[in-house]
Structures are given as C-alpha cells and as structure tokens.
Amino acid sequence: MNKILTILFAFLLLFPSFNTNAQTIQQPVTITDSILCYGDLAEINIIINQTIPSTAAKVIIGYYIGPTFLSITSTNNTTLTSINVPGLAAQTYTVRLVDSVSYYATTPNGANPSSIYDSTSINITEPPPITVSGSVINATNVLTFDGNIDISVAGGTSPYTFSWTGPGGPYGTEDLSGLQSGTYNVSITDHNGCIFTDSYTVAANQACSYGELDSIVNPVCFGNNNGEIWINQVFGTGPFDYSLEFYDSTTTSWNLVGSPIFNIQDTFYIFAHPNFQLGAGQYRYTVIDSNGCGGTNSTIIQVIDPTEIERFNYIITQATDSTTCDGEIEFQIVGGAAPLTHSWTGPTPISNNALSPITNLCAGTYIDTVVDLLGCTKTFTYSVPIEDTCSPELEVYNIFCDQDSSGIAIVNRVNYAYKDSFQFKDTLTGNIWNTMASDTFAVNLPAGGYEFHAYTLGGAGACPDTTIPFSIITPEINVLSLKGPEICAGESTEFYFDTINTDSSFIYKLIISNDVLFSGDTSSSSYFPGIYPYTIEVDTGNGFISCFTNQNITITENDLSFDSPPFVTNEICSTSLGSIEVFASSSSGPVEYTLFLNPQFSNLFTGLSTAYYTVMVEDAINCVISQDSILVDLESNIVLDVDSSLETCRLNDGWIEVIAQGGYGFYTYTITDANGPFTSPPINNDTLLIDSLDKGYYNLVIEDSLMCSYNYGNIYIGKTPRTIIDSLVTKNESCCAWDGEIEVVTIPQNSVSIYSLDTFNFGQWAELTSQNSNIFNSLYRGDYLVGIEDTNGCVDSMEVTLEVDTVWSIPLTVEITDVVCNGDSNGTFRLIDTNQCYIYELYRYTPNTIQVPLDTGTYFNTLISGWYGIEAISNSGTCEDRSDSIFINEPLPVSLNHPPVVTDVRCLNNNSCNGEVYLITDSITGYPASGGWAPYSYYLKYQNNNIPFGLISSTDTFQSLCVGLYKIQLLDDKGCEVVYDSIFVSDSSLYIDSFSVQNVGCYNGNDGQIEVFVSGGLGNYSYLWSNSDTTNIADSLFVSNANPSHLSEKYFISVSDSVGCFALDTVVIKHPAKLEFSIIGKKNETCMGVTNDGELYLNITGGNPPYQHMWSSTILSGNAGFGFGDTIFNLPYDSIIIDVTDVNYCNSTTW
To answer: Which tens digit of pLDDT belongs to each residue from 788-842?
Structure first.
C-alpha cells in the first residue's frame, strides 16, 4: 500500500497547477485613510486580480530594513478581491501576494521566488510633527502690560489657528503683546485638526515696587504739620508696610516720622495727620511687601511751607504824652494767601482792614490779627510809647549791596536836649563819619561797628551824655540751590533767593534765566547741572538799580554710580539663604548701602530669601541711586527622574511617574495640558504618579513644602497602536506527537506581553497555557483558541485547528554485527535512522515461532546468531513501518591443525631459559589453525606463577622459555579463545651434578683423586681436567705447594656433550698438615728397671687423627710397645725411640 501511494503522489507531481502565478495586485494600491497628524495611522486598500476560479492566497505587508524584509501584518488565506489594511504608520511598504504554504516553507520566508505571486510598494507619508519655538519678553513689573510672547510654528499642515488662555484672555493670535505677568497656555490647531499645546510664563522683571509719588499737599499755613504726601502704584505681595523719614539738616540724618504703618492691603497710601505730622522739609518713604521685597524711593520729596505772614518795615511814632494821641504805626504785611483781613484791638479804636500808616494813636498796646484766605492767622503786637526826651533814637540803614559803603545812620528825638555835639564813630578805626558836630546823620558808612555819641548840655534838667552803639551790616545776598551746589544724577534743582541783614525797606530782585525772584522766592523753573549767570537788582526807594552783574552759580552733577552689576548668590531651597553684593562709588563719600530701611557701610547683604530686592545707595550729600528688581532666585535641589507611559487601547491610561529627590517635605505637582493646569494636594512621597492621561502634551512643575520648585517642561504622551493577531502560522502534529506548533503574527510586532492558548476539551474551552513567546509548541491535534494581550492589556483572539501527519514509509536503515565467537551471544542490531518520535521493537524469527518480540529500543546486543527484524510505531500512533529481515551470523569454532611443538631447554645451566614453543603452519592456509576469524594469535601462561607470555602471532615462536609447565591459549582475530592442555618444557641442558673427592692422604703426597658425575646434554660426554686428565676421574692429584700453610689445591673441569653444550666447575683437593709431635712432659719410672710405669706426654699436630704411636727402648731394657692418643704409658727407665702415625699411616719424625 505504501508503494502505491508513493507512485500516485509522484504521478500527480507531473501535472502543474494552472493557477500558478496567475493572481496579481492591481496597481496602484490606494490610501483610503491618510495620515493627517504626525504619529497617527493610515489605512490602505489592496485590489487583487483573482483567478477563475478563485485561488486562496495570503497578502503580506512589510518593509525592508537593509536587505531584510520585515513582515508586520498579513491576511489569512483568502479569496477576497478587496482588502483593507488599517493601522499603518508612515513608511514605505512592500505588499506581497503569496502562496502561504511555500512562502513559509523556506528560511527566510519567501526565499522561494515562486511563492510570491506579485508584489508592489506604497509610500505612506505623514506631516512633520508640530513644533513650536518661542521667546518671551517679561513684563516690567506685575502692574504693567508690556510683556510679549512671540512663537514660531513649524510642522503639521498650515494654516494654523491659535487659542490662548491666561490673564486677560482668551486670545486668538499667534503672537501676544501687551501682557501682564502670568502663565499663558496655547493650543495650536493645524489645517488637519492636529493639536499641539504648550505653556509660556511671562514673568515680572520687577516683583515689587514702592510705587510713585502721586502728589504733595503742602501745609495749609506756615509752620503747620498738616502736610500730606500721596503715593500710588505700589505693587508686590501684600500686605504692605509703609514708613516715612524726615531729613534733619543739622545732624544730616534721616529720622522716622511717626511710626511705620504695617499690614496695609492698599497699593496707595497718604502720609498725613494724625499718623504723620508733616511740616515743611525733605522727606522720603519706604514700602516693603510681605515677602520683604521693596525699598526706599530715592526721590527727595520737598514739602514747602506757604509764604509766612510777616511784618516788615514797621515804624512806631511815640505819643508826645499820655494825653496826646499823636502816635503812629507804619507797617508792611506780606505773605499768606491774599486777600488778608486785619482785626485790631487797642486803646484807640482802629477799623478792620485799616491800611498803613495808622495815625492818631494814643499811647498803649495794639494787636493786629491777620487772617489770610486759607484761615491762617498771625498776630502782631505794636506798642506806642510816650516819648522819652532823653532817649535819642537811632535809625540804621545797612549796606544795600554786598561790600559797598552805602550804610546810613540817622539819630532822632534829640529834642534839643543835647548840645549840638554828636559823633558817629568807627569803633575799630576811631574815624568820625559825620562832618559837622551838629550833623544827626552819617552816610556812606562801610560795614563795621560804630558808636553814636550825644554829649550833655549841662545844667539842671539836662540829658546826660548818651552813647548808642550800632553796626552797619553787609547784607548777605544768597542765590542758593535748594539741593546744594552738587545735585544727584538725573535730578534738577530750584534756585532760592535769600537776603539777610538788609533794610526792610529795600527790595531785592534776582534775574536768572527766565526767572525773576524776590527775596524769599523760589524759582518756578527747574535747573539741571550747569553754569547759570544771574543779576541782582535793588530798589532802595527810587527804582531798581543794579547791585551785582555777571555773577554765576554753578550746579554740578554728583557722580554716585554703580561700578558693576550686583553679584547675587541665589537662595538654595532648604539649604542656604542668598546674598547681594553691590559695588558703588561716589566722589562725595562715604557711601551708605540700605536694604529694608537698614543702612550700613558694608556692600554685602546676606541672609536673603528668594525675592526681588531694591538696594539703595546714598552718599554724603544724600544722593541716592538704587538697583531695582535684584532677583535673589530660588535654586532648587530638586532632581526629577521622570518616566512616562503611552495611552493605550484602554484609553486615558497614560501616566507620568516622577521620582523627586533633593526636596523637602511634601511635594505638589502642577500638570498643565490643553484643558489648563491642575495642582495636586501635597503628597508625602518621593514618587508621584500622575495617571489617567490621554494623548497630548503636558507641562510639569514640582514644588516641595518650602515652595522650592522645578519646572521640568513639556512631556509628550503618545498613543500606542492597538495590537491585533494578523495571522496564525501552523505546523501540524507530526508522527512524533505533541509537536504541533502555532506561531502568532501580530501587528505591530514586539508589543505582546502574554500569549494564551486554550484547547477545546470536553465540549468547552479550557485554559491550557500562557507565555511570553509568540510560538506555541508541543501541541496535540485539535481545536485551539489563540489569544494575545499586549503590554497595555489590550486583547485579541483567533481560532485554529491543528491536524496530524500520517506516514507509512519510515526510514529503517539498520546495522548489525555478527556474533564474534562461535556460540557467543554478542551479536548487535542497531537502527541508524533513529527518531525519538517512534517506538522501535526488535523481533527474532524462528522455525517454531514465526516471530519472537525481544525488546524495544534502537540498539540491541547480546544477540545470538539468527534472523531479526524491527518494527517502528510513532508516538502519535498514526505512522508505522517494518524493516526487512536480517541474519546475524557466527563463525566456525577455532581449532589447531597440529599439536604445538616444544623445544626443551638446552646448553644453558643454572636456571637459564632457552626453551621454545611454536605452532605448525598449514601450507595451504598459511595458518596453524582453522575456524573463527584469521589471522590467529596465541599466548602461554606459566602455571607456576600464572604469568602470561605473549600475545604473539600464530606463525611466531615463543623463545627463551624456562623449564616448566605451560598452558597454551589460541585466539582468533576477534578474540575467540581455545584453551589446550598443558605442555611441559623439559630441561635438556648439560649439568655437572656432583663430585667424588679423595683428598691426598699425607702431607705432600700425590694420591688425591676426583670423580665427576654428569647428567643432561645430548650424546657422549667429553672431559677435560686442569691436570689434563680426560676421563671422568682425575687421579694422582697433589697439593703443589709444599709450604706447610698451603693445605689445598683447586682443580677445574670442563664437560661437553655431542652438540657442544658444556658445563664447567671447580673442585678442591686437600692434604693434611705435616704430622709432628713434641714431648711436653714425662713421668719417670718409679723403680728403675722394675716398675715400667714411666710415662711421656706428647703434643701431636698435623696429619689426620686419630693418632697411634710406637716406642722401643734402645739401650737398657730393650722393651717396645704401641698405643693411641697423646700419652705413652708403661715406659721403663731407658732411651726411648718414638714413632707417631695418623689414621692414614703418615709418619712423623722419629724421636
């Protein structure tokens, strides 16, 4: 059946599909929903020119990164002719129409050109992002409307519309001008409706100001303290503290007027009664807001008294006596606000408003109450006395011009009570200034001290001598600058005309520029630094005449100035306060620095909090300069680590996370978007989470409990595209089982956090697994529901069915090894093309039982010779096949053709080894054995110590074998072994077994003899002795050296056999020492000749004991005898001959 299916499949391959590459993409691909705003997504429409009948295909959309095509979305297999593809970002895309089976069958996908029916490209564009650059000109201060915001918009699609919110808004123009300080939010909408938001802050360069002088109300009447100073346009952070100072010209210091007024909310103030008593003088004021910002207005405020109601040139004419009313009052009243009214009281009634002179007055006191238009009142008292006839009166007219001699002195009321003897005498020089003694006047008097002398007439009733001292005074005619000869930079002054020590009847006039001033007047014009010529005229009663001409008054400008910008050290929130160091100089030093009404000579102000400050610098002539709006800014230690997340398909789920460090206490954030700002309540946490945000721009400002703030600027929250399942690429379950695979292709890629897979079991969907990989593997056949959840929690799903493969032709290539040795069970059966997807079972075929199952696996050993086969069944149970039968063989038994040949050990004595064993080789096979596997080898094992020899080839010979019992073992090429019986290696060597030695009997004899005994060897033996004997017995042997100490002799023998083996040895022949004796003692015969009991004691040496002796008497008795040992008994008294012999009958010397 398998063969039939294979042939049918091959037959079908011969007929190609008529639909191949017949489908095309209709050109061009159209954009049905273009991108209007940067970052949005487009939709395209693809028209497929289908085949007839329709053929399912897949459309794949992607783009190239270098040479690599990156697929981002695709359809399932479809026959649709119109396909819409949404969710495409700006990019040049390639659209492919493909055969999904062959397309995904290669790596990389689409490497097979025939898998792509058609392709085209389309470029989706988007407008550039809206970007805004802007500049801000701050407002001068918080009250002015002179701030500007100029922005420049790029990107998007013009034209643009603008919507501003902020102080004084809304506004609809691109640029804004005439702005007060504050935050302005702009929403910019382009032609396509794309929106960009931003925020700008117009700061105030001057955070506070002491305002401006609005008006001055002088005192109503001269000397009053009801003047007023009005100030307006004060700004800052209320409430405000107001204080006023008065300049004391005597002490040249500024002194507070009244007490400062605190916590005033109004931005205007009137310094007036009752809190402030303002008389004429110079003033300045100070304003400080609640943040300590403010300062002192350096402009000197001049409060001027009105003209004082004064009396000039009054003359009183005395009444003659108490009854005569002929007194007069002559006066001149000036000043005040005309018209003036007079009310008189006194002894003589005077009508109101009576004009000077007033006559016919009786002696007494008169009071004139003068009231001007404003109700100012001044009272003048006049006393009309009764004339004293002895009291001359002197009228003095001082010099009317400076340094001339126009003084006049006139004496009155001499009444002829003195003789005509008068003198006007200069007290310094003694000069008399009247020409005649009768003169009652002196003229042309220079300035100086004088005496008027009137000498008595003598006689009864005469007046005594009278002396009246007087002075002629030079007038002081002063043209003064109200602010002194040196005025402050940028200021002007008025001239004040003042005369002192002048006659009240004289009228002085100052002519300077366009001003004409009389004594006591102030110029109506203001004068800046410069040289101004002037003329003084005087009217002494006959019209004005010139007094001074070509005079000049010089006004110079003070050079008080700042040498450089102030050096500011900012306050660092919760760490350190700021400081301001000011650098100024003036030629009219010393310079004094003032901040917060606290003057000091140091130019450094420390301990300053964040605010705008005004530092006033004043020199010795009260010139004041100030540096306004010196900002001690607040530097923050706040450090922000900002993270953000895009808005997702869940909507309004964007967030901004802020980790704030370096601040103090709680944090408050202000987030500003297109809907305006939102400020959070204080948060007691370093981590701030701002959530529920949608797509847009957000401006973030963080502030801590100390009001330290950090403006992070704009943060853009984008929106993520929705992730969908584009397609599922499946791989069927194979024969292996549980290896089906589903690959999830999503748009966009790399945005899925969880992939889930449910399988339909028991009639319901049950969750099987979830993972973060887009490939599910190890799957079983069946229906699945594939789900995704992206990183934003957005989900999508798609169903798919996995099939299972069925295969009936399985590679079953096997490899066997035969049984190694006859009768063994070591044959092997190994499957070469193994696959873990299958279970393999081995069968053995026998005549009795057709097949015997042995085991499962892929490798089998311990097999005996026989027929075998293997069956494969897949894990899935859908794939099965069986191999052909294979026979495992075994060799014939191994055996020797001939017994082993042994060569005994020979020619080597004393355990030497030269025995041999070898095998007889067959002349035909070339081997000494048969069966098994040629070639063969063998080894010997020495049974005495179980030591093996070999292994050697069967054609080789074992040599150098020692005598012994050996076991021979034969092995074939596979190691099959045959053990034969033991073989014995005999010893056939020639050996000298022993000697029979007959030593020399007597000292220096020659009767020695040696017989040798030999064994082994081959054939007859040959002998050779060192004395040249050639038989086995060497005789007549002797010890060659007669030296008594030389007692032995060595003899050598060499024995050889018929094959030349020989044996050598040495043997020693000995002879005894020379036999000798001596008499070492004796015992005499008891009775000479009678008892025969004499004895001799011998010391016998040499020879071979036992010894015997023989004796005989030589002279007297003729007795003789013998005995053994070393004592001779039974001797008579006689001469004795003694002969001693040893066991060998060797004789000693006769004694």
So the answer is: 988 777 888 888 888 888 877 788 889 999 998 998 888 999 988 888 888 889 9
Joined together, the tokens standing for residue 234 give 């004060």
Whichever domain contains 418, its CATH number is: 2.60.40
What pLDDT is stored for residue 798 in this prediction?
A: 86
State how many domains the chain has: 13
Domain that holds residue 354: 310-384
Cis previous bond, 357, omega within 30:
yes
pLDDT digits (tens, 9 = 90+) for 211-267: 888 899 999 899 889 999 999 988 888 899 999 999 988 888 899 998 999 999 888
Give backbone dihedrals phi and psi of 767, rounded to 5 degrees, phi first. Answer: -65, 130
Residues paired with residue 583 on neighbouring β-strands, in sequence order: 564
Q: How far is 368 from 348, CA to CA, in rounded Å?
A: 13
Phi-psi region of 214 (alpha: psi -120 to 50; beta: other; left: phi over 0): alpha
Q: Report the mean per-residue pLDDT for the chain.
A: 85
Residues 589 and 500 occupy one common structural domain: no
Distance CA 740, CA 343 (A): 131
DSSP-assigned states of every residue in 654-677: EEEEEEEES--S-EEEEEEETTEE
**How many C-alpha atoms does 1016 have within 13 Å on its Cβ side?**
22
Residue 14 lies in a domain: no
Are 903 and 945 within one domain?
A: yes
Question: Strands 281-288 and 466-472: what pairing?
Answer: unpaired
Q: Which two tokens stand for residue 751?
A: 């945005």
Residues 292 and 355 in one domain: no
372 and 455 housed in the same domain = no
Nearest 5°: the CA angle 262, 264, 266 is 155
Cα(57)–Cα(78) distance, integer angstroms: 5
Asked whether the beta carbons of 939 and 967 are under 8 A apart, the reply is no
Q: pTM of the prediction?
A: 0.36
Measure the CA–CA gap between 103 and 97, rounded to whole angstroms. 10
Q: In the chain, how long is the greatest CA-to-CA distance?
A: 246
Question: Is 1149 domain-assigned?
Answer: no
Q: What is the pLDDT of residue 1123?
A: 83
Residue ending a domain, choose from 764, 779, 801: 801
Rounded to the nearest 5 degrees, what angle is found at the Cα of 1137, between the Cα atoms of 1133 and 1140?
Answer: 125
Residues 275 and 253 both lie in one domain: yes
What tens digit of pLDDT does each residue of 712-740 get? 888 888 887 778 888 889 998 888 888 88
Residue listed under structure tokens 């010089």: 554
In a domain, 520, yes or no: yes
Residues 690 and 786 in one domain: no
CA 225 to chain centroid, in Å, comes to 71
